[in-house]
Amino acid sequence: MDHVPTRYHQIAIATFALLVGGVPPARADLLDEVRTRGVLIWGGDQEGNAPYVYPDPDDPAKLVGFEVELADVLAATLGVRAEFRQCDWLTLPEFLRSGKIDIILNGYEWTPARAERMAASRPYYIYQLQLLGRVGGIGSWDDLRATTGRAKRQIAVLGGCAASEFLNAQWGAEADIIEYDGNTNAMLQVRNGVHDATLLDLPMAVFYRDKPQGSGLRFVGEPVGRGYYVVYARPEERRLIGALDGIIGDLFRDGRLKSIYDRYGVWTAAQANLLAADPNEEALGLRATNGGGQTRPGVVRTYGGILLRAAGMTVLLTFVSMPLAMLLGLIVALIRMYGPAALRWLCAMYVEVLRGTPVMLQLYVIFFILPQVLPFSFSPVAAAIIGLAVNYSAYEAEIYRAGLQAIPRGQMEAALALGMTRGTALRRVIVPQAVRIVVPPVTNDFIAMFKDTSVCSVIAVTELTKQYNMLANSTGEVLKLAALTAGLYLAMSYPLSIVARRLEKKLAGAGYGVPMGA
Q1: Residue 237 falls within a domain, yes or no?
Q2: Per-residue pLDDT tens digits of the chain, which is 518 residues long
Q3: Which end of the chain is more exposed for a tag (fewer CB within 10 A), N or C?
Q4: Which residues contact 157 (CB under 8 A, 6 or more apart)?
């Protein structure tokens, strides 16, 4: 079984950390450590993240972006060099907490919830949010409002960011908010006609306006909101943050910061107030997630219902996709065993292609690429079900083929000698025995699919692992949420494990494990 690496593994790691204590080892003052080793390690996510950090189009091995240049200047002023560490955007705080990176520098907005658990620098950028729609589509924010007799508008957005928070707070009752793992994926689906609009941080909207990713899209209305990008470090690293604060102030005063931003077209009039900016002010018209500093109820009470609903999506994807995979796999196996030569070859290629390519890539093709060549598109849930069913069908086909091969040839010959057609013999004699043989491995694949549904977050399906990541990022309750999430996965998969073991014992006792009559 091709078990694609997913963020499910991060849950397991975090749960283990909870069991053993989960406290990072004590370390020396980081500013001194950075200067001693000569490297400042900064974390970010280069996936669809221009103009912050992204591969140089002329030299993909090289990273460019205004935050790349800012990191280089910060490090050089400290007397060291900057080293980029690729991370998933949503899990950057966990990389920081574990000591894998020294700072977060990746368009990470200041919020009270984050400031409670990380040390924040002074702002290095004041951002606003820009709504984008298709050319010929919506013309204003008012066009997004719900009206009688029309389905709700859909707004695509990067999950876990300030734009997502703004939309859910201000427009959650008026429109459906669809969260993606990347801004460029959200833009693509607006362009494809799947969604009505997307909300981006202004720097990204400006950068992509004249790029292929922005073709067919236009700015809708004026920028809204106001927030701050800051550098984050571990809470005890106040000396490092103090040093970075001084450097950022100097860069603003001597004009070097403006020069960097001008090179990427992201300097705006709002930056004139950068030195006077106070992140403790209300940002984006919201108090940041979880009410900074307020007493919060228990994790289970607060977030249990949210995670339970996300687990429902995981169950839906699994219980719809797996039967389809089993049926399709059986058809493919029968064709490979008994079909004409041309169809046997096509089915063999079908299996090899699906087993040889990642399920994430297959989902991407179904959801993002096919709508560009077909006259229709799939909803995220439909695309997820199709993708999982098709991917798993290749593995089920091989399991069924092994089961069919385990049936002695004499049984087919005997059935034909009794006057049965080949189709009748397969339906009444061969396939029932093969199905009994393969029940245990198919059940194990059923269990595996519960975990592999987490990859569907790439196409904006909020299943259990995706919901965990969003909550962990916004609340900081990483270990408790991880334990709760892992418990939900166990509650979903353990009953099937029991069923698989009982079936295996029952079928072995009935003699189906070793076909007789050879």
Answers
A1: yes
A2: 444 444 545 555 455 544 444 445 555 689 999 999 999 999 999 987 899 999 998 998 899 999 999 999 999 999 999 999 999 888 899 899 999 999 999 999 998 889 999 999 999 999 999 999 999 999 999 999 988 788 899 999 988 888 998 999 999 999 999 999 888 899 999 999 999 999 999 999 999 998 888 999 999 999 998 899 999 999 999 999 999 999 999 999 999 999 999 999 999 999 999 988 877 765 555 444 343 444 455 767 788 889 999 999 999 999 999 999 999 999 999 999 889 999 999 999 999 999 999 999 999 999 999 988 888 889 999 999 999 999 999 999 999 999 888 888 888 888 888 888 888 888 888 888 888 888 888 988 999 999 899 999 889 898 998 888 878 777 777 788 889 999 999 999 888 888 877 877 776 665 554 443 33
A3: C
A4: 163, 164, 167, 177, 178, 179, 180, 186, 198, 199
The DSSP bridge pattern shows strands 81-86 and 59-64 to be unpaired
**Boundary-marking domain end, from 183, 211, 227:** 227
Contact between residue 129 and residue 284 where contact means Cβ atoms under 8 Å apart? yes
pTM beyond 0.85: no
- The count of structural domains within the chain is 3
Last residue of a domain, one of 227, 245, 269: 227
Closest by Cα among 220, 221, 241, 224 to 232: 241
The reply to whether 383 and 410 lie within a common domain is: yes
Structural domain containing residue 356: 300-509
